Fold this protein.
Amino acid sequence: MTADGPGGPATRPHPAVATARRLLEASSRVVVLTGAGISTDSGIPDFRGPSGVFTKNPEAQKLATLQVYMSDPEARRRSWRNRLESPTWNAQPNEGHLALVQLERRGALDTLVTQNIDGLHQAAGTDPARVVEIHGTMREVTCMTCGARTPMPDVLDRVKAGEDDPSCLEAKGGNDVCGGILKSATISFGQNLVSADLERAEQAASHCDLLLAIGSSLSVYPAAGLVPTAHLSGAKIVIVNAERTDYDSIADVVVRGPISEMLPGIVAPEIGALGLAERHGPA
Ligand SMILES: [Zn+2]
């Protein structure tokens, strides 16, 4: 079933929302897959959508390519300046992120796989042990030589203090330090995913009783492949997205609308019902 979100005379919860809520309530092992759409209401731009950063500025995509980053010091300097100014550092989780915490509190969340690198699920209160950040995280920095991980704020402090391309300070023995190139701990274009993360996500998708895909066009693989994996294993598929996705045809229900408004009504009914009534007035 496919339906448009609230609009016009919609003063009652939308039928697609009610169907999605019933399916969620009947499920006890839910895998959630989130994409950029869940974070846009927190002020974080979508990189690949129609008005995305990469779509409008191919130069930004070039900077995010591993080979360019590793070979071009100027690309690294620009990347560090961009990281310093990222909207993520001031972003707060929105009602979409918070609704998923409710799902976890009632014991139904098995694993939350996210394509996002912003860390907002953990900031909202989702147990970090249940989160698989399949494209990495921008809240940490990794050394491309020795693999050492450092909190991002520590390295940004060095950039603010004047190091425009900070290198790894990990001790190497004697008075030497590693000196390797540092990069945010995200998966760049041209970089392999972490196989342990991918395996964990695939295992979860093949053992869940419902897969809830939120805010993703489901066009970037291998994350998008979790949807058919869950479907073939017999799980229900619920898709919540502002636009159509590549897997709408195999979904049990598709909820089309603003995610931070629709999601509370789907996964946290008691809060969501109130929220909808407040937003759209009495029926
Ligand atoms: Zn190092």
